[in-house]
Design a protein that fits this description.
By secondary structure, the protein is α/β, with parallel strands linked by helices. It has two domains: 264 residues, Rossmann fold; 31 residues, no CATH class. Helices cover 29% and strands 15% of the residues. It has ten helices and eight strands. It has an eight-stranded mixed β-sheet, with helices on both faces. Helix 1 crosses helix 6 and helix 5 packs antiparallel against helix 8. The protein starts with 28 loop residues before the first helix and ends with a helix. The relative contact order is 0.13.
């Protein structure tokens, strides 16, 4: 996206609002705020020039803590709101922050269309693998066997592989990071925000209050950087999809020693390709119907709809 950059660098704290987060102590989402402010500071983004939208959930409160134009929308509707911003004000860089339940459950139908149309925006999902705000129900990414408040005998469903879904939906930038590694997360967010097109970052973000399995202790020593450690080239779409298909192998005891991750959670940029954005296509379409005086040529436009 085309961010407006300041002449002087602001410290990360200047990208925070005067509101204090109400998350539980130790929430992984604090790491996302840290990474966002760090990335914005290093890139010298003008906080008054960007918009952050969210839905409903613990993670969706994030725009409240940021010094930027924020839009806290209805449950699952963060992406449509962001699309509205991109169509009305394509010059405004747009970031979406949400949770796994918000995006991949009630808001599921919006993801593939925003991705395949390649809207120029960045989606950051804080994936704690359950619903935290409503007190521990299983989400689409909950591991099999997870005991939520409505699943006392354990989740009988397989978790959704959001990375393969994003790639298959047509996202042009797909990555995964970990909130316990703010440096890697900040670098990933910078790369995603600089990408022109639909960029998706899934953040492994532990919930210390309810999820007692996918904890910071669990993730310690259990992440592997696919770019630095495996030498993955994100321009290789076929390889990206192959690697993403193994992203949940660590959930399966039978695959703890299996290649390519050997029981670890992959982080890094899986896919990064260039493709014309929806906004660019709209701009080209508008050029066809602009008269020499700069006004729309309404006769030519309406002729398209006359019998």
């Amino acid at each position: 996206m085309e961010f407006v950059r300041l002449e002087t660098k602001l410290p990360p704290k200047e990208y925070r609002s005067d509101l204090e987060p109400t998350w539980c102590p130790g929430c992984g989402d604090f790491g996302v705020v840290t990474a966002l402010t760090k990335a914005f500071s290093e890139e010298q983004f003008d906080p008054t020039s960007l918009a952050i939208t969210s839905g409903i959930g613990c993670s969706s409160r994030l725009p409240l803590w940021m010094n930027a134009f924020g839009l806290h929308t209805a449950h699952g509707r963060a992406l449509p709101a962001a699309v509205g911003i991109r169509l009305a004000k394509p010059e405004v860089p747009t970031i979406v922050t949400a949770g796994d339940g918000d995006i991949f459950s009630i808001g599921m139908e919006h993801f593939p269309h925003a991705a395949r149309k390649n809207f120029n925006m960045t989606l950051i999902v804080m994936d704690n693998r359950m619903y935290a705000l409503t007190k521990n129900q299983t989400s689409p990414t909950s591991r099999r066997g997870y005991k939520g408040s409505l699943n006392p005998y354990g989740n009988i469903e397989e978790p959704m592989n959001v990375l393969t879904f994003a790639i298959a939906s047509g996202a042009t930038f797909v990555a995964q990071s970990y909130s316990g590694n703010p440096k890697h997360l900040a670098e990933t967010i910078k790369a995603a925000s600089e990408h022109k097109g639909f960029s998706f970052v899934n953040v492994l973000s532990p919930c210390p209050t309810f999820n007692k399995i996918d904890t910071f202790k669990y993730y310690k020593g259990r992440t592997i950087d696919i770019n630095k450690e495996l030498g993955h080239d994100p321009s290789d779409v076929k390889k990206a999809l192959e690697l993403a298909s193994h992203a949940l192998d660590a959930d399966n005891p039978e695959l703890q020693d299996a290649e390519p991750f050997k029981g670890k959670r992959p982080i890094g940029i899986f896919l990064k390709v260039e493709k014309e954005t929806f906004e660019d296509k709209v701009a080209k379409l508008k050029e066809k119907f602009i008269a020499p005086n700069g006004e729309p040529n309404w006769d030519e436009i309406l002729d398209k709809y006359r019998p």
